[in-house]
Amino acid sequence: MTNADIAAAFDHVADLLEYQGDNVFRVRAYRNAARTIQALVESVASVRTDPSRSLTDLEGIGGDLATKIEALLDTGRLPLLDQLREQVPAAAFDLMRVPGLGPKKVKLLIDALGIDSLDALEAACRDGRVAGVKGFGAKTQAAILGNIAFAKDPANSRLLWHDADAIATRLLEWMRRCPQVRQVEGAGSWRRGKETIGDLDLVVDSTDAGAVMNHLEHWPDAVGVLQRGDTKTSIRGPQNLQIDLRVVAAESFGAALQYFTGSKEHNVRLRSLARERGLTINEYGVHRLADLSGDGPARGSGMAGRTEAAVYEAVGLPWIPPELREGRDEFDRATSGTLPALVELADIRGDLHMHTTETDGEDTLADMARAAVERGLEYIAITDHGQRVTMARGLDRRRLLAQWDAIDRLNESLARDGDPPLVVLKGIEVDMLEKGGLDLPDEVLARADWVVASLHYGQNQPRDRITARILEAIEHPCVRVIGHPTGRLINKRPAYDVDMEAVIEAAARTGTFLEINANPWRLDLDDVHAAAARRAGVKLVISTDAHSIRGLDVMRCGVMQARRAGLEKADVANTRSLAELTRLMGRG
Fold this sequence. Notes:
The protein is of the alpha/beta class. The protein contains 24 helices and 16 strands. It has a seven-stranded parallel sheet with strand order 10-11-12-13-14-15-16. A five-stranded mixed sheet has the order 2-4-7-6-5, with helices on both faces.
């Protein structure tokens, strides 16, 4: 089993224990273990097989959890999970996919109303029965009714790009060990960096399709074979992900990679351009229409096909990066010679949103600074929550100033031997209050190096009210960036209703930055809004919102989102040196 599989199993155990009203500390132990395993860069299996290490070396993993991890690795099953599944009604799993319905609320609904499906829940909301359940009421009932469609949408059950990427990385490593593989690349929505993935496509250059397909089917993480043909096979992989493999000849590898990368809209436009030139493009290559026999798709030698660049060149275009292939403006930009030089992970010089043990983080200020140095960052901002976020032990004035004093001492220590390897900015993530204003006084915020303003409460307020709260924060002289501007959680919670056109216009006018939050569940702003911000002249900040050392490693997810938005290095504020960033903020 993969890290993601094990983490999902532990999260599932936590949900079921919470549904049953089990000890809160036991529930928390499984959730913390799931977060630890999900965030590991290396596989849990490799930790287990290393004689110099133990699974109990991992944060939050004791002897009992280590034994359960070993059972999952050995058998793919967890007896406790099987037992809990038998004790909890099957409908509970569907109901828990409704945003705002956690295990405890789901149990109340099932016990009180006998709800056995999403359709039954919807009917109970429309009949007003949910409002009559203790702890709910009309407002909660209306919110549930509005979120049922979200839970029913198949798009909200797709795999996060971050999780699919971990699977793809291991799979590509496995396939490159096959002697008969000359070239192999991942394709489809994973290669384009879509936020969620339905399946994973692989394209292989080989003259021995049978050997290649056999190698795929013997991948240790393969669950089973779905179908097999002469040059194509499909298997079921970790987390129920379908993996489709196509084997082609060398002269068709580039054409197949382009074809199976997509998107459909991009490929339709590309083939239309080819037809205007008397050409046709398919997964086997580029051919002249006059050369086709009419007996099926052209195969074998053609005008182009060995590389993707050659396919695009055949229709008079430069190579278009996969992240831009969504059938938007990429062809106009390619034709006009204005395709962007997309931002890269190596361009990022600072991380400007993270949390420590002072609020809801897992690691200390010193730990986060040390990890930032190890990752080659030049500066970071410590942005623990303000006092309104009581569930995260948000900082009041006294605690915040004490933290800033600690940051001053840390910076002095870092600079003791000359140029410091890292500068730590004194920051805060203030909350936009429901009735307006921020949750810390202006005289305190004026002393900060970096202020992130975010909206955590009142997310169901009307569009005009939420928009007004964000615009007020944008206008505030101390606020530098709006954090996760739409509040969505992918597959879990839709964005709140906000006028993003007004937000982008205000940010452009005031010089306030907008955040691309790199957390794989957020990726907020999305690519469409980030592209609109770029066109308006707004500078974006890509930040991890890390709550642990491990959380710093999701920066690549935010960079991928920025690439899908067509962002270049200059569009991203934290690709600059600290001195340049300070000048960009109008402070230099």
